[in-house]
Every structure is written in structure tokens, then in C-alpha cells.
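REQUEST ID: PR-0412
SUBMITTED BY: lab tech R.K.
PRIORITY: routine
TASK: structure prediction, single protein chain
INPUT:
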Amino acid sequence: MKYYESISNEYGWMAENPKKAEAIKNAAVAGIVRVLSDSNNRAVTIETEKEIFLQSYDTLILVKDKATGEVKKLWNGYSKTTLKHINTFLGANLNKKQWEAL
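STATUS: complete
OUTPUT:
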């Protein structure tokens, strides 16, 4: 929870470009960082006690509540590569329109 609060306080809920180094540094204290498979080291998941964040390149994309499975968007943008990371993370096959509606 401390990591999530640090994201909210430092970058704001819908931050567009949180710094990757800061996110990883914070996560090392409060969570587990893993490179997302098939991302060429461009996306990581950051796991805390209650949540899992997806970060693609330097941007936090979404957060998934581990208890409820609820997903919240942290980024409103779109790119083909990031959508690929989102689909891998969620085990889904969203298209651009579905992502924008989420």
C-alpha cells in the first residue's frame, strides 16, 4: 500500500509519465518487480501486498487489485506496443476501442 500511495502522491492518479527509475526504486522497498514476458524488457509488473501495477516503458498503465481483480487505468493514451503489454498482463485480447472504453 505504501508504494501505491507514493504513486498517487508523487505523480497523481492519472499521471502520464512517471519516472521509471523512481517507480522501480519505490517498488524495491514495498513490492516485487518482474519483467513482463514477451516485452523485450520494456514492461514490468510491480507487485505490492494488495495490487499489481503494469508499467510500459516509463509510464504506469494500470493497476489490478489482487483481491477483487478490479482493474483501474492509470494512463489514457494508446500505442500498439503498450496494448500488447496490456493484453499480456491481463490475459486478454483487447483492441484499441475496447482499451479506450475501459
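NOTES: DSSP finds four helices and five strands in the chain.
REVIEWED BY: pending
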